[in-house]
Design a protein that fits this description.
This protein has helices at residues 32-74, 76-83, 86-112, 114-144, 149-180, 184-201, 213-221, 245-269, 275-287, 289-296, 306-325, 332-360; strands at 8-12, 20-24, 234-237, 240-243. It is mainly alpha-helical and 361 residues long.
Length: 361
């Protein structure tokens, strides 16, 4: 389209290696030939304009539609996930674990009857309360080693996986031992009664772990660097492999869980002897522990009456094991009622006291 009054040279390349130069004039003298030329040029210009308009329109449509597709398809879900806080995510995970645990208990009731389901729910509530009690120690360990918040979930994930494996082995050995030696029940009952006594008459949890036996032993036998290196457990320092404080934290938590298992495993044996119920109740109780830590780690001090409630439950189960050994059987439904009443009562009283103190302020 040559709208200038001057002459222009337009180079066209119809085929490789050929160069065709066309000299055109925008103004011609009046005449049929000029009119026909102008008509042809006008038709060509119109077609070229249409083609250019289509190409430009398609490019504009592509450019304008691409971000819309990106916003609608690719960024809505990440935006929702980004808006979800860690506490919201933890609430969702805890709810899923609790729902799965309840559905499993319902399936036991449909398959094996109400008594087996009562054993399962009593064991699950007991193990869940003892797992929450473990969180007190986890908080102390994280504070003592000054573990950054972003690395705590990694330590808890490995710690929970190790706890599941260790407890599975301990449960299998415990079931075999009890079936072979019935008098082991008295030993387990003594452990539970002593643990109950410690929860009532013992001192408060130690806030300084520098003199803790587990911590001192780990620091003595494990070469540890004096700094964190991201979320790594091991680093090569001057050609020597050393553990970071994160690995030391993990080892202390694992050994602490083993120490707590001395209470929890005999306690579940006081409720049921079924290996499937014992193992499943432990797994469900431990599975939500990491998310539960995110939820209640900042408000653990408000659960003032939870430990006394756990002490009552452990004392009751220890006495129940002694009665069972002597031939006096306490119904499973009664055990479930005692466990539920004590634990829920401890939590409710703790929350009411915390609420009243908050109002007084």
């Amino acid at each position: 389209r040559l709208s200038s009054p001057w002459l222009h040279a337009v180079q066209l390349r119809p085929a490789p290696g050929r160069l065709l130069t066309v000299v055109a004039a925008s103004r011609r003298s009046p005449g049929d030939g000029g009119k026909r030329g102008r008509k042809k040029r006008g038709r060509r210009a119109t077609e070229a304009d249409q083609e250019d308009g289509l190409s430009v329109g398609s490019e504009m449509e592509t450019k304008s539609s691409t971000p819309r597709a990106t916003v609608n398809d690719g960024s809505v879900k990440p935006a929702l996930e980004a808006s979800m806080t860690p506490k919201d995510s933890a609430i969702r995970r805890v709810a899923l674990v609790v729902i799965a645990a309840v559905l499993f208990g319902v399936s036991i009731a449909l398959k094996d009857g109400v008594e087996k389901a009562s054993e399962y729910f009593a064991g699950y509530l007991l193990e869940q309360s003892l797992s929450v009690d473990n969180l007190f120690v986890f908080i102390l360990v994280f504070k003592y080693f000054k573990v950054p918040l972003e690395y705590q979930n990694r330590v808890l994930s490995y710690g929970i996986a190790g706890a599941v494996i260790f407890r599975a082995v301990l449960i299998i050995l415990g079931v075999a031992t009890i079936q072979s030696f019935e008098a082991v029940n008295l030993f387990f009952a003594a452990i539970l009664l002593f643990s109950s006594y410690k929860l009532f008459a013992g001192d408060e949890e130690e806030s300084d772990l520098s003199d803790n036996f587990i911590v001192k032993t780990c620091q003595k036998f494990i070469p540890v660097t004096d700094y964190y290196d991201g979320d790594r457990f091991l680093i090569n320092q001057d050609g020597i492999w050393k553990a970071t404080p994160l690995l030391l934290t993990l080892v202390v938590i694992e050994l602490s869980d083993i120490a707590f298992a001395v209470d929890s495993i005999p306690a579940i044996f006081g409720v049921t002897r079924d290996p499937l119920i014992i193992l499943s109740s432990n797994i469900f109780a431990i599975s939500g522990l990491r998310s539960l830590y995110v939820l209640i780690s900042e408000s653990m001090s408000e659960l003032e009456y939870l430990q006394p409630a756990v002490g009552i439950v452990l004392g009751f189960i220890g006495a129940k094991m002694i009665f069972d050994f002597c031939g006096y059987h306490i119904p499973t439904e009664a055990s479930l009622a005692v466990v539920t009443t004590c634990l829920s009562g401890g939590v409710i009283l703790s929350l009411r006291k915390a609420s009243s103190e908050e109002r007084d302020k």
